[in-house]
Amino acid sequence: MTDITTEQATAAASGAAATERFRSRHQSGHTSAGTERVDTLATELITAVHDIVRRHQVTYAEYDALKAWLIQVGQDSEWPLFLDVWIEHVVEEVANENREGSKGTIEGPYYVPGSPRLPAEATLPMRDGEKGTPLLFQGHVTSVDGTPLSGATVEIWHADNDGYYSQFAPGLPEWNLRGHVVADETGHFWINTIEPAPYQIPTDGSCGRLITAAGWHAWRPAHLHLKVSAPGHQLITTQLYFRGGNHVEDDIAQAVKPELILAPTPVADGKGDGNEVTYDFVLDKA
Ligand code: MBD
Ligand code: FE
Predict the structure, then answer these.
(1) pLDDT tens digit string along 72-104?
(2) Of 281, 175, 188, 266, residue with least CA distance to 228
(3) Which domains are assigned to the chain?
(4) Shortest CA distance to 157 belongs to which of 184, 134, 136, 175?
(5) Mean pLDDT of the region 107-125
């Protein structure tokens, strides 16, 4: 546990923050699909459930348990968590299947727009003595044709060494381990941060109850979240993982891809402690 956090992180509190964040970015009542599309998708979803009920002879007791659980997911404000952990990876796969540049992966529930803008050589906002192995994450951003993208933006957010995200757990400074870094004229960036810890999704809410009831585990491997963009190019939302880390092979959110695994090495003597790693981003044209 952290020494700074006095209040306990709870599923309901992080769920409420994630739900509020989502609502503030996506107007409710806005329809993005026509009647025909909704008819198709809703009918197929409902029919898929009917098939499961028949195939597995689902009982009234099981039906009632499902109903109670669905009600509770809403009461815990855990729909963003549920959807991003178990569904989003396939939406991302479909959305980005034709990209030629860097691989993307899911955004997850803990992105917050408007993080501090930082220069190309940056240190993320962090507490004095922030725990964790220092990490220099550097690279450059190019277009698919190899052109360096001057002034590209690398937005980064990640959990701390206890697996907590600022604005979703109590006691953390508002923008801790969040920032958007503006690359230099040659598209290069150098970001000083710390290596995040693996992330355990809250076990005290409805998603946690499902995980326990099904005998699954609640872990995501340690990861950096990123959104990389440049004028005239498609923004990519991605994550980067750490080779050999726990749960790289069995991410509960199924969001790891081989291209997204970093292998940091100790920084060269004289440059300080910690690890460094280079990762270059290639953006598709808009
Ligand atoms: C996370 O940190 C995350 O990235 C996802 C996808 C789901 C839950 C927590
Ligand atoms: Fe995450």
Answers:
(1) 999 999 999 999 999 999 999 999 999 999 999
(2) 281
(3) 1-30+78-286 (2.60.130.10)
(4) 175
(5) 97
Of the listed ligands, the closest to the CA of 208 is: 1
Is residue 42 predicted with pLDDT exceeding 60? Answer: yes
Q: Is 157 in the pocket of ligand 1 (CB under 6 A)?
A: no
Q: State whether the beta carbon of 199 lies less than 6 angstroms from ligand 1.
A: yes
Supply the DSSP symbol for 258. Answer: G
Q: Which two tokens stand for residue 59?
A: 């009982």
CA angle 72, 73, 77 (to 5 degrees): 110
Q: Which residues contact 84 (CB under 8 A, 6 or more apart)?
A: 106, 107, 108, 109, 253
Check if 85 has its Cβ closer than 6 Å to any atom of ligand 1: yes
Closest Cα to atom 4, ligand 1: which residue? 108
Average pLDDT over residues 184-188: 97
CA of 106 to the centre of ligand 2 (A): 9
CA proximity to 158, closest of 48, 230, 262, 79: 262
Query: Is 270's pLDDT higher than 90?
Result: no
236 and 101 Cβ atoms separated by less than 8 Å: yes
Q: Is 136 in the pocket of ligand 1 (CB under 6 A)?
A: no
Check: CB of residue 233 under 8 Å from CB of residue 286. Answer: yes
CB-based contacts of 12, cutoff 8 Å, min separation 6: 76, 77, 205
